[in-house]
Amino acid sequence: MSYSRRHVFVIVWLVLFVCLHIFLKVQQHEAKPKSPFELGTANESADTAPLTILSEEAVSSQIEDYPLTVFTFWETWCEPCASEMPLLNTIYESHPEVQVIGIFHSSPSEEVKDFIKKYDIHFPLMKDQNKTFHKKYKVQGYPTLVIIDSEQNILHEAQGFQSEKETLDPIYALILKTSEKSL
């Protein structure tokens, strides 16, 4: 069976397309911050996968890599905090150019793991042991949402319960503004 040049050309283009698609998926996956710290063990199943916990140094060093960083300050006992987690998951998963980090202070590791599993949180977290970030961003209650740019300028902040619209509108507006600047 002989293939014409046209058939070979189409097959080569299909193979290149598939390779490019795989390459882009891998790049998108690797664009999310990696953590040197985890809660959990390597033997856990997919249902109880290790929780990504970033160090203060890792968070500080990654800020300049993103045009926007969204910090949510929360604790496991805070019910309004739980309601904003799915919204921030959406931002994290649909906008790889935006870094989303959940920052907690006093919640015990087991409670954090249960909270993450219950609310299916995918974005990385940071335990602010010494309240360095809490003090820097003047957090006085939970939840607190702070959005900064790559130069650590505060672009938006909100303390206390926010509706879905009040949570997402400023984030999407800043994403749009940032993308317009990069054009």
List keywords for this structure.
183 residues; alpha/beta; Glutaredoxin; 2 domains; 7-stranded mixed sheet; 6 helices; 19% strand; elongated
Overview of the structural elements:
- With 183 residues, the chain is an alpha/beta fold.
- Helix content is 46%, strand content 19%.
- It has helices at residues 5-30, 56-62, 79-94, 109-119, 132-136, 164-182, and strands spanning 37-39, 51-54, 68-73, 98-104, 125-127, 144-149, 154-159.
- Strands 1-2-5-4-3-6-7 form a seven-stranded mixed beta sheet.
- Strand 4 (98-104), helix 4 (109-119) and strand 5 (125-127) form a beta-alpha-beta unit.
- Helix 3 (79-94) packs parallel to helix 6 (164-182).
- The termini are far apart.
Helical residue percent band: 40-55%
Tally of DSSP β-strands = 7
Work out the radius of gyration.
20 Å
Q: Name the CATH homologous superfamily of the largest domain.
A: Glutaredoxin
- Sequence of strands across the biggest β-sheet: 1-2-5-4-3-6-7
Specify the CATH class of the largest domain. Alpha Beta
CATH fold-level name of the largest domain: Glutaredoxin
- Helices and strands: which structural class? alpha/beta
Major β-sheet profile: 7 strands, mixed
Average pLDDT for all residues: 79
From the N-terminal CA to the C-terminal CA, the straight-line distance is 50 Å
Specify the CATH architecture of the largest domain.
3-Layer(aba) Sandwich
Sequence stretches where pLDDT stays below 50 over 5 or more residues: 28-50
| SS element count, helices | 6
What percent of residues are in strands? 15-25%
Whole-number total of structural domains: 2
Global geometry:
elongated
In N-to-C order, the SSE pattern is HEEHEHEHEHEEH
